Amino acid sequence: MESVIVILSPLIAFLIIAFFGRKIGDLASAIICILGGALSFLFSTFISYQVLSSQNPIHIKLYNFLPLQNFTISFGLYFDTLSAITTTVVTFVSTLIFIYSVGYMHNLFGQWTYKFYAYLSLFLFAMLLILLSDNLLGIFFGWEGVGLASYLLIGYFHETKKAANASLEAFTLNRVGDWLFIFGIIYCFYLFGSIDLLDIFKGVNDVNKNLLGVAALLLFGGAVGKSGQLPLHTWLPNAMAGPTPVSALLHAATMVAAGVYLVARVYPVFDNAPESLKVVALVGGITALFAALSATAQTDIKKIIAFSTMSQLGLMYLALGIGDQVGAMFHLTTHAFFKALLFLAAGSVIHAFGHHVHDIFEVGNLKKYMPITYGMFMVGALALAGVFPLSGFWSKDRIIGSVYDVSFGFGVLASVVSLLTAYYIFREAFVMFHGKERHKDKAHESEGVMVVPMVVLAIMAVGSGFFEGWYSGLFGAHKEIHLNIAVMSVVIALVGIGIAYLVYVRGLVEPERAYESLKTLHTTFKEQFFTEKLYHKILANGYMNLSKLLFIIGDKSAIDGFINLSRTVYFRVVKTLWIRLDVMTVDLFVNGVARIAYRSGKVLRNLQTGLLNNYVSFLVLGIVFILGILIKFMR
Amino acid sequence: MSISLAYILLSIFLFLLGLLGVIIRKNLITMLVSTELMLNSANIVLVSIDHIMKGVEGQVFALFVLTIAAAEVAIGLGLVVALFRLKGYESSSEITHLRG
User: Which residues, including other chains, have CB under 8 Å from residue B12's CB and lie 6 or more apart?
Assistant: First the structure.
């Protein structure tokens, strides 16, 4: 029962808000949304406690969804250590973001904002479906639900062209991933004869490794689309067009985490097909570096953090690829805390300027006006950079340690990514909160409803790292921290922070001159190595042009031509028939009668002179005529 | 030629005279007088036929005709006078409203 509440409470909240939101108002909708998330969090904590203390997964079959001949697709919930803890973290972070969104969206209340909360609840429900479903089809269902909810939320400000395009792009690129994912599910069914996770886990040793690798790669394709990894990444930065709580939710708890979770969920499949793991590691590593480099050149407040998410997810995939599943999931957890914190702090800055400021160079020296937000952002940034003893240090260090164990090349890559991470996030922090005052409007600290979730998340971002040993112990994958690597990571992080400090606070390098000399590099990074241009200009526009061409050839000339031709022919036929039958026969007869009557009338009217005398003459003639007849014939 | 035939011929002559008067003359009163002429020629025929056939019905009928003719003349003359006073018509050629 408790387990059902976990997944149903956001759904019920969604239904209530969707059907009655207009009546009960926006604030009440927000409260229902928060209650749905909080209930879900409470019960998932309870379930996690049960699962962890008993060490036994809870598996509940809810009902048979689709009975086929000798196979039944059922819907059920599966709580093991992985899903229970992830569910707890997701519902916790989501609830905090929901609370924060009350403050953030407050100025939009009264403008159908209940829709926003309905979408948020739907988003959480879909994510919980991914986390808790016991078969791949249920996961796919949630997968699509997450896609739908993200589409609605990214495009929430649908009056702006940018948001509408961003949501469309997110939906389209996710479709590519989902397409691979559903083929992965079909392939799994073909391999295992079942899509239940437990059956799959049981069967992985019995099937052909090569075929298993194909299934793993197809499933990974779905994860790539959802997590914004190369080459399906362009939607993730553009998704920043949505409201900030959505970005936080998207990046911390619900959307992009689903990809990493999926790979971790079906990890036995990957584990038994080692070649597929190499692909995962490669994609993750390249994405991590790519996104980190792109992040260094961005100037949008939220886009920097978005690229950071991409980069960190790349690190997680790298960790998954080299076999450190627990490290990846732990990094996902800590990342959820500090990334949500960073987004909420960034949203606090945007909110302070009435949602008009989006560039980091439009503001400056905000620490004077927004001390709490400054502190929160710094905590998040330090955690992201991986400075001891914040949470990011523990999780990232574990990953980097594992990576060095497996491959020195990937290890160096991970270190470089860490350096870049520390640099770009502190670049943003220093530009926004230190330096000259560039903003004209007055900044103000955010209200309590926004600050409290940030503080809670900050506590988690600081403290959650200490649970690394406990977390690893749950999975039985304990890992000693290498002191050299730990020291090296911290030094790297501090070097990155130092560079950002020297450049953006001390002004060691003249920004204009640096920009001039590094212009090519800067543009390359800023344009994401021109992948976005490639997708938008060549793929999307090419497709549009192809469609237009096909439209002109197929529709305009062939179909429209045929229709126009038949129309012309039909008109001709009808016109001929009309002339032949109607004009030349019927009208001729009618007009002839009329003309005869007219002509004869014209002649005969002359008899009607109007003169009395003439009438009398005619009378006499008539009488004579009639009498003549009478005399002739009646004799 | 017996006297009776002379009466009949007289009445035919009078009738044709009246007819000619109605057809040719334009003055409304003259036309009315001409119709009286035709009516009375008919009376002559009635009486003369009675004389020939030794009956009395024709004479009685002629008396009726005389009576009705008096009434008819009163109405006809009234109409003509009224027409003249209202519209100023005195010739039948002025009343041509029915010309086609």
Answer: B41
Count of Cβ atoms closer than 10 Å to residue A532 Cβ: 18
A84 Cβ contact partners less than 8 Å away, ≥ 6 residues apart: A44, A47, A48, A51, A52
Task: Determine the 3-state secondary structure of B76 from DSSP.
Answer: helix
**Residue A139 CB burial class (10 angstroms; 0-12, 13-18, ≥19):** buried
Helix (H, G, I), strand (E, B) or coil at A79: strand
Give whole-number Cα distances, A372 to A96, A355, A379, A385, A446, in Å. 17, 19, 11, 20, 9
pLDDT at A600 over 90: yes
Residues of B in Cβ contact (< 8 Å) with A604: 100
The predicted model gives A365-381 an average pLDDT of 81
A264-277 tens-digit pLDDT: 888 888 888 888 88
Contacts of A29 (CB under 8 A, 6+ apart): A17, A21, A113, A114, A117, A118
**Does B2 reach chain A within 8 Å, measured CB to CB?**
no
- Report phi then psi at A257, rounded to 5: -65, -25
Torsional sign, CA A217, A223, A229, A232:
positive
How many Cβ pairs closer than 8 A exist between chain A and B? 37
**Measured distance CA(A14)–CA(A11) in Å, rounded:** 5
**In this complex, is the C-beta atom of A600 within 8 Å of any C-beta atom belonging to chain B?**
no
Task: Answer for the pair A175, A234: CB distance below 8 angstroms, yes or no.
Answer: no
Packed helices A114-132 and A26-54: angle between N→C axes, nearest 10 degrees: 20
Longest Cα–Cα distance of chain B, Å, equals 52
Q: Is A604 on the interface with B (CB under 8 A)?
A: yes
**CB proximity B76 to A under 8 Å:** no
Give the ipTM.
0.84
Inter-chain touch A611–B24, beta carbons under 8 Å: no
Instruction: Tell me how far apart the alpha carbons of residues A478 and A114 are, in angstroms, rounded to a whole number.
Output: 45
Task: Report which DSSP code applies to A480.
Answer: P
pLDDT at A627: 93
CA–CA gap between residue A140 and residue B46 (Å, rounded): 126
Q: Does B98 touch chain A (CB under 8 A)?
A: yes
Least Cα distance to A261 among A132, A106, A145, A421 occurs for A132
The single-letter code of the amino acid at A97 is I
DSSP assignment, residue A518? T
Residues of B in contact with A608 (CB under 8 A): 98-100
Spatial distance between the Cα atoms of A201 and A310, rounded to a whole number of angstroms: 29
Of A278, A267, A297, A110, whose CA–CA distance to A204 is shortest?
Answer: A267
**DSSP H/E element including A506:** none
- Residue recorded with tokens 């009960």: A24
Q: Is A609 on the interface with B (CB under 8 A)?
A: yes
Query: How distant, in Å, are the alpha carbons of A355, A467, A607 from that of A244?
Result: 10, 29, 101
C-beta separation of A391 from A383 below 8 A: yes
Stretch A227-231: mean pLDDT: 78
Q: How far is A611 from chain B (nearest CA, A)?
A: 5
Neighbours of A607 (CB within 10 A): 10
Q: Which residue has the higher pLDDT, A240 or B38?
A: B38
Looking at residue A151, its pLDDT comes to: 87
